[in-house]
Write a structure and sequence with these properties.
It is built from 8 helices and 7 strands, in the order βαβααβββαβααβαα. By secondary structure, the protein is an alpha/beta fold. The protein has one domain: Rossmann fold (3-Layer(aba) Sandwich), CATH 3.40.50.300. It has a 5-stranded parallel β-sheet. The chain has a two-stranded antiparallel sheet with strand order 3-4. β3 and β4 form a beta hairpin. α1 packs across α7 and α5 packs across α6. The two termini are 28 Å apart. Pathway: Pyrimidine metabolism; UMP biosynthesis via salvage pathway; UMP from uridine: step 1/1; Pyrimidine metabolism; CTP biosynthesis via salvage pathway; CTP from cytidine: step 1/3. It is found in: Cytoplasm. It holds the Pfam family PRK. Its main location: cytoplasm.
């Protein structure tokens, strides 16, 4: 079984996770729930257990070097060849990988979502469909604030400081230019059903199924 790889990229807070979950749900209805894996690029942040916590807090987590994209590509290749993999699990509170792993079994469809995927030539060349999700910068910031405060235990001051220091500059340097490599660009402010309808022809080509209109 050859897995179909779908990359979903775009700025932080643009709506990548929402689209990934909606796409997985739609494909599961026609292919079955065991046929879909969702992989988050965030889990491939580099292990920093050898660094003091204070140093981890100061790292630039929006630069490509913060991620172990080589491991992500290797594990995608293993999944596509029929092997199970132990995906790392990232601890956002400790700013490093946890001791846990998540075992992923091969599946017909693998959806990978993350901010810098399309900036990596080897990843986008390995993918069957490259999607870029775009949204106004103010919407992205509001969503990031809500997520980091409520889901990751951050405070507003630290989120805004990181946004000004690294998030926006790195988006302008690496994420926004990667849009040119997308097969399709979707609005992160549209309802998921609208985005899935726009993907229908692309899905028919790479997966052999269609999203509802």
């Amino acid at each position: 079984m050859r897995s179909t790889i779908i990359l979903i990229s775009g700025p932080s807070g643009s709506g990548k996770s929402t689209l990934s979950e909606a796409l997985a749900e739609t494909l599961s209805e026609s292919l079955g729930p065991d046929c879909i894996n969702i992989i988050h690029e965030d889990n491939y942040y580099r292990d920093q257990n050898d660094k003091p916590f204070e140093e981890r807090c100061e790292q630039n987590y929006d630069h490509p070097s913060a991620f172990e994209h080589e491991l992500l590509l290797t594990q995608l290749q293993q999944l596509q060849s029929g092997q199970s993999v132990d995906m790392p699990v990232y601890d956002f509170c400790q700013h490093t990988r946890s001791d846990q792993v998540k075992t992923l079994k091969p599946s017909k469809i693998i959806i990978v979502e993350g901010i810098l995927l399309l900036s990596q030539a080897k990843l986008r060349d390995f993918s069957d469909l490259n999607i870029y999700v775009d949204a106004p910068i103010d919407i992205c910031l509001i969503r990031r604030l809500e997520r980091d405060i409520h889901q990751r235990g951050r405070d507003m001051a630290s989120v805004l400081s990181q946004y000004q220091a690294t998030v926006r500059p790195m988006a302008e340097a690496f994420i926004l230019p990667s849009r040119q490599h997308a097969d399709v660009v979707l609005s992160g402010t549209s309802k998921p059903g609208r985005s899935l309808a726009l993907l229908r022809d692309h899905l028919a080509t790479v997966v052999g199924t269609q999203a509802p209109s």
